[in-house]
Amino acid sequence: MKIFHSMPLRGKTPAEIEFSRSWQHEAAKKAVATTFGVPVEECEILDTFIKENVPENANALWYFGEGVRTYLSQTDVLALAPDWAGARGCVAEKFVAESYDIPVIVLEYRGENG
Q1: What's the whole-model pTM score?
Q2: CA gap 67, 73 in Å, rounded
Q3: Domain segments of the chain: what residues?
Q4: From CA 95, how far away is CA 90, in angstroms rounded?
Q5: Residue 43 and residue 29 in contact, taking contact as beta carbons nearer than 8 Å
Q6: What's the distance, CA 14 to chain centroid?
Q7: What would the pLDDT profile of 42-80 be if each residue is shown by its tens digit?
Q8: Residue 24 to residues 7, 55, 61, 111: CA-CA distances in angstroms?
Q9: CA gap 51, 76 in Å, rounded
């Protein structure tokens, strides 16, 4: 199963993003495997970091559109970070997924640092 992981990035350092991504990717795989009854080995987190063919004037809306077109349209499930509700991109991705019958799961915090 292909998983689109949606998480807020604004205001986070690269180290904070990497820390959150590492545990959230594992949590997403486990949650999807449990929810849909598939082996965790069949759960794949899509690499949605867009780094090629980016226009010089690309803004947040451009990245959102490319993410929906390139990745969300090809995914089996959307996994939202625990703090998704305060991020406009995550809110919009959830709306799009639900509008197109893509299942959505919300990850839970794993503790004080996660």
Answers
A1: 0.89
A2: 9
A3: 2-8+18-50+60-106
A4: 9
A5: yes
A6: 16
A7: 999 999 888 888 999 999 999 999 999 999 999 999 999
A8: 9, 29, 24, 12
A9: 23
